[in-house]
Amino acid sequence: MNMKPQKVFTRSRLNYAIAILAGVASTPFTYAQESTEPVIEELVVTGSRIQRVDNATSTQPLSVISAEDLSSSATVDIGEILNENPALLSSVTSTNSIGGTAANSTRSSNVGGSALNLRALGSQRTLTLVNGRRHVSGIEGTSSVDVSTIPSALIERVEVLTGGASAVYGADAVTGVVNFVLRNDYEGVDIDFRTGISGEGDANTLSLRALIGQNFDDNRGNFTISLQHDSSDGLRAGDRDFLANDGRATGDVNPALRFQQGDINASNTPNLAQYYNFNNTGLFPYGLRIPTAEAFASNYLNEFGSAPTLTAAEQALFDRPSSASPRAFLPGRTFNITSPYGVVALGDFGTSIPLGQEPDLNGNGTSDCLDSFTGYNSSLDGAASFGAAGGCWVINEAGELVSYEDGLVTGNFNQFGAAQSYIAPNRPFVIPQDDKYSINLNGRYEISPTMELFAETKYVYHEVVFGGGGNQATDLLYGAPDNPFLPAQLAPFANNPGVGFVGPGGLYISRDSDDWGDNESINRRTTYRLVGGLRGSLDQWGLDYEVAANYGKFNRHYKSPFTPITDRFFAAIDVTTDPATGQPVCRSDLSATAYPRTTPFNFPSYLGGGALSSFFSFQAGDGQCQPANLFGGKGSISQESIDFFTYTRTVKEEIEQSVVSGFVSGNSSEFFTLPAGPVSFAFGGEWREETSAQEYDNYDQGILPVSGVTANGVAFEAGDWIGDVSNAQSLGGSPGNRALSTSASYDVWDIFGEFEIPLLSNLPLIETLTLDGAFRRADYSTFGESDTFKVGGLWAPVQDVRFRANYSKAVRVPNLFELFSPEQGQNFRPNDPCDVSQLSSAPDPTLRQNNCVADLQAKGVLNENIFDASGNYIFVDPLSAGFPGVIGGNPDLQPEEAITKTLGVVIQPRFVEGLTVSLDYWDIVIEDAISEISSQNIATSCYDSPSLDNPFCELLDRNREPSSAQSGGFTFLRQVQLNFGEAKATGVDLNVNYQFALGDYQFGLGGAVTKQLELEFIEPSNPGEEAVVDDDLMEMNRPEWAGQLNFSVATGPFSVSLRSQYLSEMALTGPIETAVQNYGPGIFSDEFFSHNLSANWDYSSTVRVYGGVSNVTDEEPYATQRSYPVSPVGRAYYLGINVAL
After folding, report:
1. What is the pLDDT of residues 1082-1120, one digit of tens each?
2. How many CB atoms lie within 10 A of CB 368?
3. Residue 355: what pLDDT?
4. Domains plus CATH for the chain?
5. CA-CA distance, 571 to 1064, in Å (whole number)?
6. What is the DSSP letter of 373?
7. Over pLDDT 90: what percentage of the chain?
8. What is the pLDDT of residues 952-987, one digit of tens each?
9. DSSP code for 896
10. Backbone φ, ψ for residue 1094 (5° rounding)
């Protein structure tokens, strides 16, 4: 092809990479033999459409990962390889897409995928390109690309530009650009097979790739086809000891603040044993908070008429809270009022059976309810604690009724290590199981010496299996006295009518069922992409041009089995005996208007009153309902019953992207030339349209499948919405939450231009002085016009040293999800900041308590539930489960604007051949940053603000019924996207790359270190108020220091490389100031090191064998994390063979 004359530099892959990497960060290389006769080639690099000789002339920091680095890595996940780059440390990879941290967490739509995140400021602010062009998103409503769909065999290099690039590539490039450059002129056949296995003999991986390319018509054309299959068995929690049985540490109130089993005994603590004795005072000997010695002495005197003489052991117990942190991280946290097969309580709150006189089924001479703190705490007629949930017995797998066994008590509902309670089961995936197939066909053809036709096509099918946890968790399900499945030992008590708000006796069971079936969700994802265009040269003007059209489409089909249909579930568990057959039967089959009780907490609330108001998903009495035995242990619910009350939830998503773009580039040499050289330029335009749609099933949307009449006489027809005839929003497992099928789109027209002006050259102390800049104007259908720009400069006083600086303004408009996602139901469970145990975590505990008191009193909570007789604050969160709310987009969002500054130096000393050192300072400030504020931050910010008159309190509501068991508990939360305020990140990058030879050995030494100086999110403040600064630096996944060191050596056909990663200490939870207050200085992790070793053997000119070990030292994730900062797989091995013909 005879386009504008180019100088081509044909070198070995090593030297080619060195040319690209001059002055920028690098990862290590695998070396090949040097070729002869170098030729110079001008390259178009990320961040500019202006051709440059090498990347050392870039005014912004730029790092490159070569194809050799990708092929020799221990993983086939491109995202995981890039995640080793300190700038991309917070990216989502297939390994951490389930157990990600707050900094990189993602929705289920991206489980198994990889989304890049520069500077920990969000993947929505990182623009991912393929061959300099946009790629369709792989996450609903966003521009985040699933880079795992990019074929690794086709990748020539990956360019990572840090710093705003909106002026060149448009919105979303706020923190930078990652550009995947694909091969476009491959000839031959390359087949690669690799397999991997963990040191434990599991977590198998398999990859098979084929690359076929051929020139034709005297090399005027080329086609290249890539075929790839990757699969992984995944990893389940039970496969690793440190994950099994909920082995990750979880934060809760420190058990040291309460009496625990064994603390009180008659010999060492006689005064405590006398006082904390149910028969004497009605108090339990453990589980209650430790008072001060003075308070205990006063209470003892009032109770027994004499002051106690404390023993040394007693004084030590009273002193223990003063040396204990308010909260603790321990493994095996349990929700002790429920279990996989049921915690059982007598079903009449306010029972006429006095506490302590309940059944003694185990015959130990003590009421079963006094065998445990859980039983005592949930006894229903006057226990000193909550007294409205849980139970005295546990049903084990075999269906046996046994007394509860406590662990370490942290509160009314939570413990550590209560083995009978619900512990997260061991079968959930922590690394998803996936199968991926991709085919790419790219081609080009030279129509004339000045015009070339090119095309890229792509299809990827990706199936991901994840989930596998419990099926359904519901507290206090009612078993009527005539339910034939009730445990026989409790039948006499269940038939004892009681008083209170439940009525005619019965039992309650809280069951976190995990025996309905393998609750494994499936994502089936397909990605299509078509690119076509013309490129060439206009020789008469010395210009190059490109015109291209780009269409991409992403589909996701999500399936989640064993989702309960609420009215069917309650119908199935409301069982009686059929008088005609003597067999268990659904009560609704005998009476179509016998609506079952729901729960004492009025869940679900169809018309209120604690009972269903109708059957909305089936016709009662039609024989569909199959009775469910909740009380028989594992597997007691028949498959017929499970099939009746569950269904497979489905969600379908579609994202489409259409782009038409064109640009012209060249220089002024045909018209004028400055003393230092011609002015280079590029200008062009682009039109882009983005569309996103979600489709939910009818149960999720609350579309009624049958006709009927509610209990209050309101008729409904099939096709009606349940919300028009009841308080419910949907028919699924969360009836207070509704999902709406929606679609949204926008389009944008852009014009842009770039320039590079060589100001001076070849002067004393001015080897080179260059100025460059870019400007873009965009016109959005949603927001109108916006302008972005950048200006930069490069000064080389001598050939060895280059100084560079860049200043840019970037703009990101809200994406479709942030704008138009409809408000949909969502369950929330933040810690209640007003719970007495949470006050110590506040920056100002007194302020929080005052706000809480004011709000609780305004919501009608009785003073006796806020203060004790001595005036001490005692409010306890009454909720035992999540509460409903809504989550959705915000059409009032405005674009966010970022100012990015970089300043750096590149050193390539001629006296040390092969050495490149770069040092860059970067500063990013995002105004009006768009953020989805977490439910916890909403709740906390409400009560930690100077007053309750703040926007966060407007997003919350509490139970306003003084007589309710949940009085004062949260009842609603609205979570929306907001222009939150300001985000600020600054830091310094140091990159070193040194290539040298000693005899027959070639060595490579590369390092990249980032020192993060600031990472802050600043909330907007009211006039006269100080802004609230959330400092995220040193929180999880946001280390102060991050580094990567790479060493390689090659001789003859052999090469070995070692890749090491370093992370400085991080807080296991945040914010740091609060975390230190709550957990003490031990909240920080240790410094982290990990190492990957790889080796290559060129068996012949066409066959290469390679292999390696990842995580050589078998490091584990942090105590609070499942897959960070290292995969839970542990040490793993891989072996591959590559045949190139």
Report:
1. 889 999 999 999 999 999 999 999 999 999 999 999 999
2. 25
3. 57
4. 13-183 (2.170.130.10), 255-324 (no CATH), 334-422+473-513 (no CATH)
5. 55
6. H
7. 58
8. 899 999 999 888 778 899 989 998 888 877 899 999
9. E
10. -135, 155
Looking at residue 198, its pLDDT comes to: 97
With 50 as the cut, is the pLDDT of residue 286 above it?
A: yes
Burial string for 258-269 (b: 16+ CB within 10 Å, else e) reads: bbbeebbeeeeb
Lowest mean per-residue pLDDT among 271-275, 313-317, 1079-1083, 1115-1119:
1079-1083
Question: 133-134 and 680-696 as β-strands: parallel, antiparallel, unpaired?
Answer: unpaired
pLDDT mean across residues, the chain = 86
Amino acid at 937: N
pLDDT digits (tens, 9 = 90+) for 671-727: 899 999 999 999 999 999 999 999 999 999 999 999 999 888 899 999 999 999 988
Longest dimension (CA), the chain: 109
Residue 280 in this model has a pLDDT that exceeds 60: yes
> Residue with structure tokens 């944008």?
748
Strands (E) located in 908-969: 915-932, 956-958
The alpha carbon of 961 is separated from its chain's Cα centroid by a whole number of angstroms, namely 36
**Cα–Cα distance between 348 and 576 in angstroms, integer?**
19
Report which of 1068, 985, 1086, 1078 is spatially closest to residue 1033, judged by C-alpha positions.
Answer: 985
515-542 mean pLDDT: 93
- Angle of the 293-304 helix axis to the 312-323 helix axis, nearest 10: 140
- The C-alpha atoms of residue 722 and residue 593 are separated, in whole angstroms, by 18
Asked if residues 780 and 753 have their Cβ atoms less than 8 Å apart, the reply is no
Tell me the DSSP string of 251-269. Answer: EEE-GGGB--TTS--TTT-
Determine contact, residues 536/499, Cβ cutoff 8 Å.
Answer: no
Q: Tell me the CA distances in angstroms from 501 to 191, 349, 592, 597, 837, one per residue in order.
A: 71, 7, 24, 12, 29
Residue 8 backbone dihedrals phi, psi, to 5 degrees: -110, 135
Q: List the structure tokens of 22.
A: 């001059």
Q: For the beta carbon of residue 720, count every other beta carbon within 10 angstroms.
A: 16
Whether 1 has a pLDDT exceeding 60, the answer reads: no
Exposed e or buried b for every residue in 521-541, given b needs 16+ CB within 10 A? Answer: bbbebbbebebebebbbeeee
Sequence-distant (6+) residues with CB within 8 A of 83 are: 89, 91, 93
Which pLDDT band holds residue 5 (cuts at 50, 70, 90)? very low
Provide DSSP, 1029-1090: EEE-TTSTT--SEEEEEEEEEEETTEEEEEEEEEE---BSSS-HHHHHHHH-GGGBPPPEEE
d(CA 1137, CA 1103): 7
Q: How many CA atoms lie within 13 A of 478 on its CB side?
A: 29
Extended beta strands in 480-619, E state: 507-513, 520-538, 543-564, 575-577, 584-586
Percentage of residues of the chain with pLDDT beyond 70:
88
* CB atoms inside a 10 Å sphere around CB 1119: 15
Contact 111, 97 (CB under 8 A): yes
d(CA 5, CA 287): 83
Could you write out the three-class secondary structure of 659-689? EEEEEEEEEHHHCCCECCECCEEEEEEEEEE
Q: Which of 23, 19, 24 minimizes the C-alpha distance to 39?
A: 19
Residue identified by tokens 């099933």 is 697
pTM: 0.88
Between CA 37 and CA 10 the distance in angstroms is 7
d(CA 970, CA 826): 14
Report pLDDT digits (tens) over 828-870. 888 899 999 888 878 899 999 999 999 999 999 999 999 988 8
Helix (H) / strand (E) containing 302: helix 293-304
Tokens 């920990």 sit on residue = 120
CA pair distance 294, 301, nearest whole angstrom: 11
